[in-house]
Design brief:
The termini are far apart. The model is unreliable at 24-37 (pLDDT under 50). Helix 6 (132-142) runs parallel beside helix 7 (155-167). The chain has helices at 4-37, 43-48, 60-66, 69-78, 90-101, 132-142, 155-167, 184-190, 225-230, and strands spanning 54-58, 107-110, 123-125, 145-149, 173-176, 209-212, 218-221. The chain is globular, with a radius of gyration of 21 Å. The chain is α/β, with parallel strands linked by helices.
Length: 243
């Protein structure tokens, strides 16, 4: 028979393990919150950086899903990482993407209305419904590069894409394709009239990155390095892992 002392030792060990797990998860949660708080910024702070900005344009609706429990589970089991920014979750991917792109210029975006803390990645500026188009237009005119993540669509994103096509050198535009390859067709259909030339008919193999030739001919790139090279940016330096 198992003695009472052995049972108590086993019980104490389980309690100790549960306490350590709770402390670890709590520490990760607090660390992530502190990381997100650093992404809050203002137009005045952005102006203090004399470099031209890198603008990140995406769907608020999709970002809200990505920040949900369902979105996080989908990332772990179905998401395909960006080559060269290989991380299993969207949060980590955005964090490391920002590490690369901030080497070119301040990586910035409009903050999602109503969010308690910014989603990882670009620094966020919060503006009213009547201001955001003016702010984005000014950013686009000054930008050194634009990153588009069109998954999720929306009228606001469509307006932003049209502004990019009208004002930005095609070589300086980077598209991030959906994390789930099966969503590519809907994205291609959504963008069919947005660019002067259509995106590839079939989803590119082994990459989620597209950029453009000077005539807006889209072509896939294996990682971020060709995008840096074709625009004369310094080669990106190694980045630290998120955890």
């Amino acid at each position: 028979m198992v003695s009472c002392f052995a049972l108590l030792a086993l019980f104490d060990g389980q309690i100790f393990g549960a306490v350590i797990l709770g402390i670890t998860l709590g520490s990760v949660y607090l660390y992530r919150r502190s990381q997100r708080k650093t992404l809050l910024t203002t137009p005045e702070e952005i102006e203090m950086d004399e470099r031209a900005p890198v603008i990140y344009l995406r769907s608020f609706r999709q970002e809200e899903f990505d920040d949900s429990l369902k979105g996080k589970i989908r990332d772990v089991f179905r998401g395909e990482p960006i080559p060269g920014v290989a991380n299993p979750t969207r949060e980590q991917e955005q964090h490391n993407l920002a590490k690369y792109l901030n080497q070119i210029g301040p990586f910035i975006a409009i903050g999602r209305p109503g969010e308690a803390l910014p989603f990882p990645g670009a620094k966020k500026v919060y503006v009213g419904d009547e201001e955001w188009q003016d702010v984005v237009s000014q950013w686009i005119e000054k930008s050194i590069a634009v990153v588009l993540e069109p998954e999720g669509s929306g009228e606001g994103l469509s307006w932003e894409i049209n502004s990019v096509v009208a004002n930005v050198d095609p070589k300086r535009v980077l598209i991030i394709l959906p994390r789930v390859a099966g969503d590519y067709k809907s994205i291609r259909d959504y963008l069919c009239n947005s660019f002067p030339k259509p995106l590839p008919e079939k989803v590119p193999r082994g990459t989620r990155l597209l950029t453009f030739k000077p005539d807006w001919e889209p072509f896939p790139i294996s990682n971020l390095y060709p995008f840096f090279k074709q625009n004369g940016f310094d080669e990106p330096k190694d980045i630290d892992p998120y955890f």
